[in-house]
Amino acid sequence: ETKQVLRLSLTEFSLPKFYLLFGISKVKSAAVIAFRSSYRDRSFSPGSYERETFALTSLETVTEALLEIMEACMRDIPTCKWLDQWTELAQKFAFQYNPSLQPRALVVFGCISKRVSHGQIKQIIRILSKGLESCLKGPDNYNSQVLIEATVIALTKLQPLLNK
């Protein structure tokens, strides 16, 4: 069963629709970009292809796909702690200020968490509040808008885990 999940996931990740989710939709083959080296191909340089933005909704989809793979593998490994470690790392970066990592970590934390405390929800609401304050100071603040979007995604995913 695990092998079947892995085969299907590999096939799915190879589809052009997943290229878009990984932010590489303008390439013919993801493998060519992934394994291209400046030593093997002198025509490649970091600016030779246009980087696409990586939407938080894409991150949500990719995270859920990776979670499905991880859970399938964990069924065959009784003492596996991968998900606990991933959740711990996501939580660490979600609650630590970093304009680049924090929004992504919040989305991942919301997607992979199997339980949530009221204290964690409070922290996410504080982050949302700070993002809203920043937007009021300057509506053109892109980082604040991304942070707000990330907190909303995280809260939406975590809300069903709360006690009634």
Folded structure, characterized:
This protein is mostly helical and 164 residues long. It has one domain (1-24, 53-161). It contains eight helices and no strands. Helix 1 packs antiparallel against helix 4 (56-75) and helix 4 (56-75) crosses helix 6 (102-112). It is flat. Residues 38-52 have low confidence and may be disordered.
Briefly summarize what is shown.
This protein has 164 residues and is mainly α. The protein has 8 helices and no strands. Helix 6 (102-112) runs parallel beside helix 8 (142-158).
How many β-strand runs? 0
Number of helices: 8
Proportion of beta-strand residues: under 5%
Shape: flat
Protein name: NF1 protein
Which descriptors apply to this entry?
0% strand, 164 residues, mainly alpha, NF1 protein, flat
Break the fold down into its secondary structure elements and pairings.
Blueprint lengths: L1 H12 L2 H6 L8 H5 L21 H20 L6 H13 L7 H11 L5 H20 L4 H17 L6
